[in-house]
Amino acid sequence: MKKWMLIFVVLLLLTLPLTACNQNELQKIRLAEVTHSIFYAPLYVALSKGFFKEEGLDVELTTTAGGDKTMTALLSDGADVALVGSETSIYVHAQGSKDPAINFAQLTQTDGTFLVSREKAEQFEWDQLKDSTFLGQRKGGMPQMVGEFVLKNNGIDPHEDLNLIQNIDFANVANAFASGTGDYVQLFEPTASIFEKEGRGHIVASFGSESGRVPYTTFMAKESYLDKNQDTVKKFTKAIYKAQQWVEENNAKDIATSILEQFPDTDPEIVETVIDRYKQQESFASDPILDEEEWNNLQDIMEEAGELPERIDHSSLVNTSIAEEVSSK
After folding, report:
1. Which residues neighbour 48 within 8 Å (Cβ) at sequence distance 6 or greater?
2. Where is the protein localized (predicted)?
């Protein structure tokens, strides 16, 4: 009897470490981001500060370079979660998807582009754009739609009052401007700040400040994934909320220092400048809740650009229950 008891105790001691390992094993989430940008600073803070790991998650981040590719990755199960513009969920819904992409957490709440002028303007007025050559963004994408929305709000018809160029790939817009094409260009950071530092252009206006609150980039997952992985998505959203609060409470320099490993080829001063600019115009959402007003503003912008397939109720493609729960604690 004592012999069997001894064997039992030995087996128990051998299995305890294995049980502990299983309990400590991180759950993987495959996250596809539409581009790698300082604009997504809170996400990188969640990674660098270990907020995902605190929730028992191992986030595998992949840059999929473009809205179409990002949604393809999500819908084909190449990714569990996508970080992309909310407009893509509307496009997918319009195609009759039986497993729609649901927005469950918001990361940025304004446009992230800036108007850069080749010539320095002592006092910028939007009327100065009339009859100029303007390098815009890809038709149908949020930067282009927000850009046109802002221009129209300032009395400029982008297709009548400008020589509008939209046939240049996103990756080559900055190079085209640097090579001498255009009087004005719509640029993301850090390119806008780099151009200003190098004297290639001058930031004269912010499209984010002009367009109002909009769910510019959100985390989304297929409805079926959300249904089966509620607890996992809740942990993911909780980590994002921790990062959003950390960004809210810390200065640009500390935020920049925390995410520098994500941008090893970018001047640390530029990273800090960009973060400071985005913080000042409140581009980083302070919580993950995508509210109905923002959703409707998005659709107004899409409608104005002629890119809205149909108006979709907030409740159809947005799930705020998880974001509201983690934000209330």
Report:
1. 258, 259, 261, 262
2. Periplasm
Q: Domains in the chain, please, with CATH?
A: 27-110+214-327 (3.40.190.10), 113-211 (3.40.190.10)
Residue 277: name the closest of 175, 174, 207, 177 by CA: 207
Q: How far apart are CA 215 and CA 213, in angstroms?
A: 7
Count CA atoms within 13 Å of residue 119 on its CB side.
Answer: 10
Residue 282 CB neighbour total at 10 angstroms? 15
CA distance 272 to 258: 11
Phi, psi of 43 (to 5 degrees): -60, -45
Q: What is the Cα–Cα distance from 221 to 217, expressed in whole angstroms?
A: 13
Q: Residue 5 to residues 11, 54, 197, 288: CA-CA distances in angstroms?
A: 10, 38, 75, 54
The H or E element that residue 41 is part of is helix 41-48
User: What's the CA angle centered on 36, arms 269 and 201, to 5 degrees?
Assistant: 50
Q: Which two tokens stand for residue 130?
A: 């009339």
What is the Cα–Cα distance from 326 to 324, expressed in whole angstroms? 6
Contact 46, 240 (CB under 8 A): yes
- 3-class SS of residue 80: coil
- Series of mean pLDDT values for 10-residue runs along the chain (329 residues): 45 45 75 96 98 97 91 96 96 93 97 94 92 89 90 94 88 91 95 94 95 94 97 98 98 98 96 96 96 96 92 97 93
Determine contact, residues 62/79, Cβ cutoff 8 Å: yes
Rounded Cα distance, 58 and 76, in Å: 21
